[in-house]
């Protein structure tokens, strides 16, 4: 099944996605982070703002993902993570994170970003290395997108190569399925 996901991700990347210049995207994101650091002067606040921005992106990005991939509903959190890793990340960033460190109940796992295009051309200042999660936008994107398909998750960075770690790792925990709510009827 994982091979099928990977093949679909490759097909979508090559044939169905309009790409932009990667360096333009990377430099634009970098400028955004620099501006947030100047505006907030507090790395915790910057991390929060990046996650909030990512959430807003994820809420909208899921529609594009579903339309382009033609993917239906996943059966569980484990399948959802396979689809995100092999199709979603490939579709939008042309990378395929590794899924690892599954808990025994399959409710918690890690995404290892062997490649992270946001980290290209970036070197964090010494005072930011222990406080700033530069790619925290990814956590928000994952949370926002999955919330739109009725999955509540928690996503947090636990390591980042920009901080001197061996790998960049996002830890994801499935919290619960959300109930689909119907809007109140106008009378």
TrEMBL record:
<keyword id="KW-0333">Golgi apparatus</keyword>
<comment type="similarity">
    <text>Belongs to the TRAPP small subunits family. BET3 subfamily.</text>
</comment>
<dbReference type="GO" id="GO:0005783">
    <property type="term" value="C:endoplasmic reticulum"/>
</dbReference>
<dbReference type="GO" id="GO:0048193">
    <property type="term" value="P:Golgi vesicle transport"/>
</dbReference>
<keyword id="KW-0256">Endoplasmic reticulum</keyword>
<dbReference type="InterPro" id="IPR016721">
    <property type="entry name" value="Bet3"/>
</dbReference>
<keyword id="KW-0813">Transport</keyword>
<dbReference type="GO" id="GO:0016236">
    <property type="term" value="P:macroautophagy"/>
</dbReference>
<dbReference type="GO" id="GO:0030008">
    <property type="term" value="C:TRAPP complex"/>
</dbReference>
<dbReference type="InterPro" id="IPR024096">
    <property type="entry name" value="NO_sig/Golgi_transp_ligand-bd"/>
</dbReference>
<dbReference type="Pfam" id="PF04051">
    <property type="entry name" value="TRAPP"/>
</dbReference>
<dbReference type="GO" id="GO:0005794">
    <property type="term" value="C:Golgi apparatus"/>
</dbReference>
<dbReference type="InterPro" id="IPR007194">
    <property type="entry name" value="TRAPP_component"/>
</dbReference>
<keyword id="KW-0931">ER-Golgi transport</keyword>
<protein>
    <recommendedName>
        <fullName>Trafficking protein particle complex subunit BET3</fullName>
    </recommendedName>
</protein>
